[in-house]
Amino acid sequence: MAFSSELHWFKSSYSGGSGTECVECAHADDDTFIRDSKRTEGPMVRVHPETWRAFTCSLGPN
User: Fold this and answer.
1) pLDDT of 1-42, one tens digit each?
2) How far is CA 55 from each of CA 2, 9, 52, 60, rounded to the nearest angstrom?
3) CA pair distance 4, 54, nearest whole angstrom
4) pTM across the whole model
5) Which of 24, 26, 46, 57 is the one with CA 20 to 30 A from 7?
6) What is the rounded CA–CA span in Å between residue 15 and residue 37?
């Protein structure tokens, strides 16, 4: 598993513009990671890339 400091994090385009709803994502070879950008050292969720793709596709166009 990749460590948080080794990942390239980017802010989700679904995050709100008010600064209160900030979700960051990072992709590794076999995993996708999601975390709260305000708590970068806090918990993160790890999901299979196909699961993440299915989730984001279900949200419709951005």
Assistant:
1) 556 668 999 886 666 666 666 888 999 989 999 998 888 888
2) 22, 18, 5, 10
3) 23
4) 0.73
5) 57
6) 10
